[in-house]
Amino acid sequence: SQELEQSPQSLIVQEGKNLTINCTSSKTLYGLYWYKQKYGEGLIFLMMLQKGGEEKSHEKITAKLDEKKQQSSLHITASQPSHAGIYLCGADSQGGSEKLVFGKGMKLTVNP
Amino acid sequence: DTGVSQDPRHKITKRGQNVTFRCDPISEHNRLYWYRQTLGQGPEFLTYFQNEAQLEKSRLLSDRFSAERPKGSFSTLEIQRTEQGDSAMYLCASSSDVFIYGYTFGSGTRLTVV
User: Fold this and answer.
1) Do B42 and A4 count as a contact with CB atoms less than 8 A apart?
2) CB–CB of B45 and A90 under 8 A?
3) What percent of chain B clears pLDDT 90, i.e. is strictly above it?
């Protein structure tokens, strides 16, 4: 079965710093989804990547998909306290499947 | 439409009791999903519906678990004879097209079995 490994597991940064989160799959990536979760809450959809080399941005968050490396990265520019939370990557496990496999998440703390 | 709604938000129950959770998806979404999340882990797929049809069930969904979506609108997830290992956050999500829009998740129901 597919596994998603996220790194780092947690990160503490000073407000204004840039940071990158990685998500590496044990199998071919057909579709990669990034979500953010506040503690005890549901997941908020950030963006989805489907094609190798694809890059998407929303406000100060940019995500890229490297199909060859079976990896996606999420980059936050000039972090703010509002970026704090748990970032989870999810992947289409079978290609065309509506069932997503998720990583364990990366906990981000942004200190003002 | 205010998004995916789940009720209750929290449930504490004694081991052996039955519990039922409800999920109201976004009205125009024909797909509905249930996931379970334990502390420090990502969500794990349980089951999903397209309209009223249950199309896939995970092996995690033991015989004690049952999900329904009787009229293709709201869904219920029932756990019979709860065990301490059932303690988790139960997340519901809906979508009109997961390959374009991803899921929209609800805030979840946190179950504690004592």
Assistant:
1) yes
2) no
3) 80
